[in-house]
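User: Here's a structure from my thesis project, written as structure tokens. My advisor, Dr. K., wants to see whether a designed sequence matches the one we expressed. Can you design one independently, without my sequence as a hint?
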């Protein structure tokens, strides 16, 4: 139960952090926030049925492995999404 609670807490905090990061550049804030919101809401609506479908066909453990794989993929690409050294999101826009 503690693992599920921590997983839920991490998921609940991810959306607001993503929204805050998306609005850092005032010139592109609206477009970026709309993309982050769309991704978040699609994941919220499509994620549980997808995990249920996979769980029905392959088992619960393998279905939840997909979630772990997506988290690992996010961790791998997070380094690529950092700003370059010496620049900030606010100075790039102008």
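Assistant: Designed independently from the structure alone:
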């Amino acid at each position: 139960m503690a693992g599920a609670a921590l997983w839920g807490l991490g998921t609940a905090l991810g959306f607001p952090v993503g929204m805050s990061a998306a609005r850092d550049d005032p010139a592109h804030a609206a477009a970026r926030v709309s993309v982050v919101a769309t991704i978040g809401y699609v994941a919220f609506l499509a994620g549980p049925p997808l995990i249920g479908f996979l769980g029905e066909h392959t088992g619960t453990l393998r279905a939840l492995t997909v979630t772990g794989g997506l988290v690992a993929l996010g961790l791998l690409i997070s380094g690529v999404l950092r700003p370059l050294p010496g620049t900030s999101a606010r100075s790039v826009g102008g």
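When you compare it with your expressed construct, this may help: The mean pLDDT is 82.
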